[in-house]
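FAQ: What does a ligand-bound record look like?

Like this one, built around pyridoxal-5'-phosphate:
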Amino acid sequence: MVVTHQGFFDAPLAEIDPAMGDIVARELTRQQTHIELIASENLASRAVMQAQGSIITNKTVEGYPGKRYHGGAAVVDEMERLGIARAKELFGCAYANLQPHSGSQANQTVLHTLLKPGDRILSMDLSAGGHLSHGAQVNQTGRFYDVAHYGVRRQDGLIDMDEVAKRAIAHQPQMIIAGGSSYPRVIDFAAFRAIANEVGARLLVDMAHIAGLIAGRAHPSPVPHADVVTTTTTKTLRGARGGLIVSNDEDLGKRIDSSLFPGVQGSAHLQIMAGKTVCLGEALRPEFRDYAAAVVAHAQVMATTLLERGYDVVTGGTDTHLLLLDLRRQDLKGNAACDRLEAAGITSNKNAVPFDDQKPWVTSGLRLASSSATTRGLGPDDFRRLAGLTADVLDEMAAGGGLDGPAVSATRAAVSEICAQHPIYPNSIVTET
Ligand SMILES: Cc1ncc(COP(=O)(O)O)c(C=O)c1O
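The answer part, i.e. the structure of the complex:
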C-alpha cells in the first residue's frame, strides 16, 4: 500500500496543525511584547533556530564521529567534529562533548564518570544559589551520593572560602562542585582548586549561567582550574537548548565520552547539536565580546538603580548578568512580585534569597538579568529606565496598590514603547523556520 499525506513535506505548521500554529504565534507575540529579565533565558538567533529546526532531526546516531552504530553518519560526523572544534577554541580547552541533552545530564554524566554510588560530594546549597543537579535532596544526585553543602555568608551573601575549606576537610569529598544558578559574583575558581587538592577531590565547575560571559571574555574562566566544566548552551551563551562538557584532561574526556553514551544517554539529539554548533560559531565572532561586556554593564546599571531606589541587592551588586533582589525590607513575596511585574510587561522569576524563610514557590526574592534584553538591543539608558519602572511597580505594590495601579499601567505602556523600538523576530518566522 502506498501511503501519502498531503502537505507532509511542504505545508507549514499553521496549516497542518492550526492548534499548535496558534500556540507558537501567541508565544511569539508574548516574546515580542514583553521584556525578558529571566537569567536562564535569551533570544536565539534565527540561524540557531533554523539549524535546530532543520532536517537534521531525521538522523539517528549513537556513539561518536567515526565510531557510530548507524550508517549514513558521514555528514553529521562532520557537524559534530565542527561543533567540538568550536567549543575547544571558544573555551581554550583540549576536550569537548556536545552531546548532553541538558545541563542536568551534563552534570549527571560527570558524576557518573568520576564517582561511585555513595561517594561524597561538597556543593553549594540550593537555597544559597546552587543547582538541583549538584546533589539536592529532591534530585537523583542527592539520592545516589553522600552530599554536604556550603552556603554563603549571612552578612554579605558571598561564598566564604574558609568555610568551604572547613567543610571539605570535615566531609572529605571525592568531588567538589562550584557554580550555581543565582550567585551574582565571580567565584574564586583557583581557591576551589586549592581546596580540592588539599582533600584529594576532583573539581567540577558548572558554568551554565556564565558560559557566555566566559566565552566573551567578560568573566574569568574556570577551565584552567577545574578537572571538568559543564554548561548549558542557552542562557548567556544564547544558543540551542542543551548541554556541553569541556575539560583540559583528554584522558578524562575519553572516560566522559563512554560514560555519557552508553552510560547516561542513548542517541544524540543531532538537530540540537546543529543549533549548538551555530551558537558556538556566533560566540567566536568578535562582536560576541561586545555583547558579553554589555550584558555585565547592563546588569550593573540595574543593580545600581535598584539600590538607589532602596532595594536590597544580594552582595550589593553583580559581576555577571544576574542580580538577586531581596524583598524582605519591602515585605514583599517573590511570587507576588513576579506576577505583578509580568502584568506590567516585565518577565522575571521568583527566587529564594540566602537564609530565606519562605517556601521555594513563594520566596522573598526576585532574580533579574540583562542577557536577553541586551540581545534585543537595549542599551544602558533602557536598563536604567527598566530598573526604575521595576522599582515603581514594586513600590506601588508595597504601598498596597493593586493590579490596576498607575505604576502598572505606566510600566506596561513604557515596555510597549521599548519593545517597539527594539523589535525581535518578524511574525513570518512562525511559518518560515
Ligand atoms: C547552574 C545550572 N546548572 C545546570 C542547569 C540545568 O540545566 P538544564 O535545565 O538544561 O537541565 C541549570 C539550569 O538552569 C543551572 O542553572
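Follow-up question: can I read anything off the structure? Yes, for example: The pocket of pyridoxal-5'-phosphate is lined by residues 40, 102-104, 131, 133, 179-181, 206, 208-209, 232, 243 (CB under 6 Å).
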